[in-house]
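Hi there, hope your week has been kind to you so far. Would you mind checking whether the C-alpha cells look sensible for this chain? I owe you a coffee for this, so here goes:
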Amino acid sequence: MRRTITTVLAMLFAGSLSAQTYTVFIHGKSDKNHNGVGTTDVNSYWGTSANTVSGSKIFIGYDGTSDPRTYGTARAQTNIATGLTNYCKGSNSCKIVCHSAGCYAIEFWLSNLGSTASAKGFNLTKVTALAAASGGSELASALNGVTFGFAGNAMDKSLIVSTARGAFNHNNTGGIQINHVPGYKGAFGPSAILPGEDDYAVAYHSSCGYNRAGGLDKCQTSIVSGSTTYTQYTGHLRAPSLTATGLYKNHSEIKNEGTR
C-alpha cells in the first residue's frame, strides 16, 4: 500500500512539473515573413515589447502580407492550429496576446472551431487584444477605393471594413473572453480617414470590438452616437484594467500592453 501511494504521489508530482502556462503571441500586418511556431520571435515583430510579459512565451508567426484567414505554409490559420495544439492542451494552459490583424486571425480561428475551445481540448484562459483590427480599417478601405482594387496585398484587402466585418461570426469566440486594449494616439493623415478615436491604424469601432463601424470615442459595453446604439460583440469586453477612454498610445506602442 505504501509503495502504491508513493507511486501515485510521484506521478502527480511529475505531472505538476511538466504542466506549463504559456503566453502565446500572435502578430499582425507586416511586410515580413514571421513564419514559425515556437519560442523564437521570427524576424522580431514584437521586439522588446514581449519582455513586458513574464513567464514562458510562444510566438505564432506567418507571412505578414497574407490574408489572416487563410491556411497553408506560412499562413495564420494553419500555424495557430499547430501552435495551440502543441502548447495549449493536456496539462498546459495559455493566455493569448494578439496585435492588430493577429486578433483578426485568432478571432476567426475561434469562431470556426465548431464548438467551444475547452470542448476541443484547448486550455485557453483569455485573449488580450491589442489594437484589434478584426473590425477592419478605413485605411484599407480607402486604399482599395482610390486604386479601384488594384493596390494592396492580401492582408490589405482582408482589412477592408466590410470584408473584415463579414468574414465570420464575431459573436462566437469559442467560449473565450476577448479583452480589448484600444489606443487613441492618432496621426494627422490617417486620423483624417479613421472615424472617432484611433491609433493611426484602426479606429475604436474595431479595437473595442463593436458590432458596427462608426466614429466612437469610448470603449465600453454599449454607446449611443446620434441615433445609433453600438454594442460590443458577445464575448468581447474592454480589458478590466482600463477606463473607457483607452490608452494614449499609437498602434505600435500598444504592443507593450500584453500584461492587460
Summary: Confidence is low (pLDDT under 50) at residues 4-17. The chain is about 25% helix and 20% strand.
